[in-house]
Amino acid sequence: MTKTPDSEAKKHPYIGRFAPSPTGPLHIGSLMTAVASFLDARAHNGTWLVRMEDLDPPRTQPGAAERILDTLQFYGLDWDGDVLYQSQRSPLYQSLVDQLLQQQNAFYCTCSRADIFALTGSATYPGTCRRCYQKPQKPAAIRIKVSPNLTRFHDLLQGWVETKLDQDGGDFVIQRKDGLFAYHLAVVLDDAAQGVTHIVRGCDLLDSAFRHRYLQTLLQLPHPVYAHLPVIVNPQGQKLSKQTHAEAIPLSNPLPHLHYCLQALGQKPPQSLLATDKETLLAWAVEQWQIQRVPHRRSLQQPTA
Q1: Which of 195, 209, 197 shows the shortest CA–CA distance to 158?
Q2: pLDDT digit string, tens, across residues 260-274
Q3: Which of 153, 199, 254, 272 is least crowded, fewest Cβ atoms below 10 Å from its Cβ?
Q4: C-alpha 249, offset from chain centre
Q5: How far apart are CA 220 and CA 237, in angstroms?
Q6: CATH of the structural domain 6-103+183-301, one choice from 3.40.50.2300, 2.60.40.10, 3.40.50.620, 3.20.20.60
Q7: For the chain, which residues make up each domain, given as ranges?
Q8: pLDDT digit string (tens) for 182-208?
Q9: Which residues contact 282 (CB under 8 A, 6 or more apart)?
Q10: Buried (b) or exposed (e) across 127-143, using 16+ Cβ within 10 A?
């Protein structure tokens, strides 16, 4: 595939996606992301895909994927086509890892987190194993080489953002010591394979976007348009997640939660929509959707009961 500049993305049909990890049920933060992604796709008469990012079996909760899909349907967020499961795509990921090793764009690394911290006083990898292209005897991760160049792009909500990857984390892992493939590699390959043109997701993944764009450039893949939404945080300032005991959204009366999401996304839905049904509410939301109304912030406070 050939690289497509951001400015050319509008020439192609809109394809968006929602890509949850099945580590637990959807909470209000993940619902808000799904709603925003869905509305942006539908407002552009585009395709909206759902992908299960089930790369990490130890963290995958039995039945979570099915519950997530049931929840999306209950809230009226119907997707197009088949759901893609990353756990079924290991051969593709492995072939790209092998290619990157052969090209010496990736290398084996036996360093532990403690080793890295002892050398740098931080989590930024110092390049210790950069010339290790043959698989060592001891367990090793595989890292991608990053350049010292500035990585910069324009996010629809966060504006111009930039970093130097060699100073911000350094060479990053694409395959773990236990053989599992890293999120950064899988998401880039799957977005390209599915033809994704627009990515609407939470600001907790903004830093990851720099690594994704770096890989896209290295592999000569298109750069999607990005919009990183503010994430909902609890009173302690923590992103809602399974680890912070975020409550699952209920499978009863979807209107209040959908209405809240639209409010949080800056769309100003009338109160009268609460007396309708989810089809009417979502039809209004698609018709009125303007992504630039979404707060241009990194976080939003969790709603109170």
Answers
A1: 209
A2: 999 999 999 999 999
A3: 272
A4: 20
A5: 38
A6: 3.40.50.620
A7: 6-103+183-301
A8: 999 999 999 999 999 999 999 999 999
A9: 39, 76, 77, 258
A10: bbbeeeeeeeeeebbbb
pTM comes to 0.92
Provide the strand spans (E) within the chain. Answer: 15-18, 47-52, 84-85, 106-109, 141-144, 150-155, 159-164, 172-175, 198-202, 225-229, 231-233, 299-301
Q: What is the tens place of the pLDDT at every residue in 10-52?
A: 456 999 999 999 998 999 999 999 999 999 999 999 999 999 9
Phi, psi of 232 (to 5 degrees): -85, 130
Indicate if the alpha-carbon torsion angle 59, 63, 69, 75 is positive or negative: negative
Tell me the two tokens of residue 223: 């750069």
Phi-psi region of 173 (alpha: psi -120 to 50; beta: other; left: phi over 0): beta
- Dump the DSSP string for 158-184: TEEEEEETTTTT-SEEEE-TTSPBPHH
Structure tokens at 123: 């989590």
3-state secondary structure of 153: strand
Are the CB atoms for 116 and 109 separated by under 8 Å? no
